[in-house]
Amino acid sequence: MSSGFDDQPLAFLTYDVYYWLVTQILTENTRGFDLGRLLNAFGRSKDPKEPVPLAHNGMHALIELRKFLRDPKSYLFTKEAEIGPIFKMNFLGSQSVILLGPDANELVFVNREQAFMNQPAWEEQIGRYFRGGLLLRDGAEHRAHRLMMNFAFTDAALRSYVEDMQRVIKRRLDRFPTGDHPPFLLYNEIKQMTLEVASEVFLGERDVALVRKLNKAFLDIVQASGPGNINPFAIPGTLTHRGDVGRQLLEDYIDARIEKKRDSDDRDFFALLARGETRKADRFNNEELVDHLIFLMMAAHDTSTMTASTLFYYLAKNLAYQEKCRDEVFALGNGPIEYDDLDKLPLIEYGMQEALRLMPPLPYTTRRAVKDVEFEGKRIRAGENVMIAPLHTHFMPSLWTDPERFDPLRFSPERAEHKRHRFGYVPFGGGVHKCIGMRFAELEVRTLVAHALQRYRFYVPEGYELPLNFTSLPIPADGLPIRIERVKG
Ligand code: HEM
């Protein structure tokens, strides 16, 4: 780039410094001084890799963000067609490099060059309320904590959780309205159900009044931690204040019970993590335990709720497939559905996989680059946040046949579309941070859907399309109104 001042070095410098400052203010994250960027702005960089292009003019950041939040999938496909699979976007004061496609997922999840870290990127987003969670740890510390946590996800532990889950699920299913009833907001109901599962299975708490209080505290935290809440001050009456109070309440609740749990024979999550596997050295200290439990409740809650809701929505729109899933449940016999039965329901399993493809509850995820890395000939610089987007990968026509269609059998062994690329289907992430609760989530959703189909038929009106709100994690904007009929016989 010629500034027109080539024979006047100082004027040239002034122009480029001005240019650089303006672009930093309008389009860049000004978090840190970056010599590389400064040299690029001067046109003096020796870096052979191109810098990552910006998806939009800095002046339009807010408009673009609104477009993105309205329909992130279309937005990402449009930008990919215009710019390519790597570009930068501004998100209310911070900036991310967006990387699209299965190779991008592999680069970030596998992290061969150790170029990405979790803690700095996640801390920025949810650190105030979910500090110390497993996803917010890196390296050797993350490995050690994950190993200790595995103990609460063994087959024996999961069996015991499923028994507790079944109790909550049956209790709530009993209350489903049937026949002529006002629209029943299924998403809201499932949210309450998974909250109760979390209190009973994770914390082992059965006191109804206390469960209600814990659930409220938990919901306050989740709301306060959403990207829409940019207020850092805990002034009474604000979301931030409610979130802080909620976090304190959960901390106090857990802290006061740790010693009792360590001495107990309880089989809930809290008790297993508190006791540890064998030696004292293998267990979390009190502070770690509090942080892990609060994070686990969050990680388990909205994700499973959204997966079950998406599956019910598609089953209600695809009645023939719903009927086949019900037949599969009845083929198990007339008795109660046992833990081992849950792996004998392939059609429900493909349905859940398809729901997770069509609406991954974590549509994108983030990391911080701690080294310069290259992707598609472009240079991502140390210090930049990156974002990958399963929501985009799950609809790539190169990976999926007719990607917009609900077609659960694409996951059958005969078709196995999810195996076309190792990182083409990533609802649970990949690499060392791959979801530790994947099996738990599968069991919870299968338990709920199998029990529900045994008793009820689910309908939505002809032509109904679920409206989604992407302000935080995706949720149905209308609560998913559904009509329910009792299955006769
Ligand atoms: C359908 C439900 C679920 C989905 C779609 C889901 C998705 C994910 C994804 C994508 C990640 C990786 C994020 C990243 O690498 O940036 C993750 C991590 C995690 N999930 Fe899940 N999750 C679900 C349910 C659960 C449940 C039920 C639990 C706990 C019982 C759980 C606990 C965790 C934890 C602790 C991590 C962090 C793992 C680590 O950093 O090593 N998740 N989850």
What keywords describe this structure?
489 residues; alpha+beta; Cytochrome p450; five-stranded mixed β-sheet; 13 strands; 50% helix; disordered N terminus; binds protoporphyrin IX containing FE
Q: How do the strands and helices of this protein lay out in sequence?
A:
Layout: H1 9-27, H2 35-42, E1 50-51, H3 61-70, H4 72-83, E2 86-91, E3 94-99, H5 102-110, E4 116-117, H6 119-130, H7 139-150, H8 155-173, E5 184-185, H9 186-202, H10 208-224, H11 239-263, H12 269-275, H13 286-317, H14 319-330, H15 346-358, E6 365-369, E7 373-375, E8 378-380, E9 385-388, H16 390-393, H17 438-455, E10 456-459, E11 468-469, E12 475-476, E13 481-486
Parallel strand pairs: 1-8, 3-9
Antiparallel strand pairs: 2-3, 4-6, 5-13, 6-9, 7-8, 10-13, 11-12
The structure holds protoporphyrin IX containing FE (HEM).
Largest β sheet strand count, sense and barrel closure? 5 strands, mixed
Cofactors, ions, other ligands? protoporphyrin IX containing FE
Structural class: alpha+beta
Question: Any idea what the CATH superfamily of one domain is called?
Answer: Cytochrome P450
**Assigned CATH architecture of one domain:** Orthogonal Bundle
Helix content: 40-55%
Written as H for each helix and E for each strand, in order along the chain, the element string is: HHEHHEEHEHHHEHHHHHHHEEEEHHEEEE
Strand content: 5-15%
Low-confidence stretches: 1-36
Descriptive overview:
The chain has 489 residues and is α+β, with helices and mostly antiparallel strands. Among the domains are: 1-46, no CATH class; 139-362 and 428-486, Cytochrome p450 (Orthogonal Bundle). The chain is 50% helix and 10% strand. It is built from 17 helices and 13 strands. It has helices at 9-27, 35-42, 61-70, 72-83, 102-110, 119-130, 139-150, 155-173, 186-202, 208-224, 239-263, 269-275, 286-317, 319-330, 346-358, 390-393, 438-455; strands at residues 50-51, 86-91, 94-99, 116-117, 184-185, 365-369, 373-375, 378-380, 385-388, 456-459, 468-469, 475-476, 481-486. Strands 2-3-9-6-4 form a 5-stranded mixed sheet, with helices on both faces. Strands 1-8-7 form a 3-stranded mixed sheet, with no helix packed on it. β11 and β12 (475-476) form a beta hairpin. The chain is globular, with a radius of gyration of 24 Å. Bound molecules: protoporphyrin IX containing FE. Protoporphyrin IX containing FE (HEM) binds next to α13 and α17.
